[in-house]
Amino acid sequence: MSVDFLVELYPSNVQYRATAEHTLLDAALGQKLCLQHSCKKSQCGVCVAEVLSGSVKNEHGEVVCDGRVLTCSSYAQSDVRLKAEYYPQLAHLECVTVPCKVASQTWVVDDILLLTLRFPPTLKLHYLPGQYIDLLYQGVRRSYSIANAQEVSSGIELHIRLLPDGELSQLLRACELNQLMRLEGPKGTFFVREAENPLLFLAGGTGFAPVKAMVESLLAQGVSREIYIYWGMPNSRSLYTDIAERWSLEHPQVHYVPVVSQDDPLWDGRSGFVHDAVLADFADLSDFHVYACGSPLMIEAAKATFMAQGLYEGHFYSDAFVSTL
User: What is the helix (H) or strand (E) element at residue 27, kind and residue range?
Assistant: First the structure.
């Protein structure tokens, strides 16, 4: 029989039970307690927590009694007290598996597909902008951020970079309208926290998808916070939508800076790494809340350099895109 342990979260003082066979994160999610997490593959670092007392076997198989662990791949070895973020805002959202059909397919550039999915008339998926879903098709499962806010459109919009050797990529290239699929969600803890601070959104590649959903929702709600959007792509052709530029023209509180990282003779805008553009524009980031979505390398570099420029660590929120073939 499995022995279960008491896990107490600080500073919320919320408690739950976890066995040595289930990760700290899975045990919490199974009891409808949403701890901060993203990829659940020990790669993004979003689910980091600090062991304050007790013992935990970490992602490397080491027993930690005082230090940081990743809850997605760590196991309680005794009663434990953790310093970890818990989000009651997500408690009412149920992760479900539902049918959907392909409503539209738009190739915005050679390797990026904008896919919209519709639900049966009696079904609606409830989520917070910034969260993601798992798309399930012909036995293949892949995670994608939701790119639309519920206030703006029904169904689900996905921005998908298709990989040359990707298993689901090959299936989607041959997919037709009205194709039946399933999705599971919502998932993740990437959503806009209520505050008055100015917002800085940092996106790399199709990491623009959750940014689009979050900004759409903020604008639909009439939120007046200053919004800065920095979107990085390899070249100007890869900037596959002009919606952020349109927002900046229509809403005085929205500021948009596209950044291209490669030499591009057709581009006369900002160049270099997208997080470096932020550093060049703001000498002090202490007042900002930052939401970053893109590769783990981009997120790690942005977090370290933004904190060096005054950003409070607890005001950096991220969702790392981990590639899977």
Answer: helix 24-30
Domain count, the chain: 3
pTM confidence score: 0.91
DSSP structural state of residue 247: H
Name the CA dihedral angle for 158, 246, 107, 215, rounded to a multiple of 10 degrees. Answer: -10
Range of the domain at 278: 199-320
Assess contact for 245 and 231: CB atoms under 8 A: no
For the beta carbon of residue 153, count every other beta carbon within 10 angstroms.
Answer: 12
Place of tokens 């879903």: 133
Q: Is residue 325 part of a domain?
A: no
Query: What is the maximum span of the chain, computed from C-alpha positions, in angstroms?
Result: 66
How many CA atoms lie less than 13 Å away from 40 in the CB half-sphere?
16
What are φ and ψ of residue 70, in 5° steps?
-100, 120
Residue in 78, 65, 73, 27 with CA at minimum distance from that of residue 46: 73
Q: Which residue has the tokens 């499962």?
A: 141
Percentage helix, strand, coil for the chain under 3-state DSSP, each rounded to 5: 20, 35, 45
Digit-coded pLDDT (tens) for 100-159: 999 999 999 989 999 999 999 999 899 999 999 999 999 999 999 999 999 888 899 999
Strand partners, 35: 86
Q: What is the pLDDT of residues 250-290, one digit of tens each?
A: 999 999 999 999 999 999 999 999 999 999 999 999 999 99
At which of 131, 160, 187 does a domain end? 187
- How far is 30 from 52, CA to CA, in rounded Å? 23
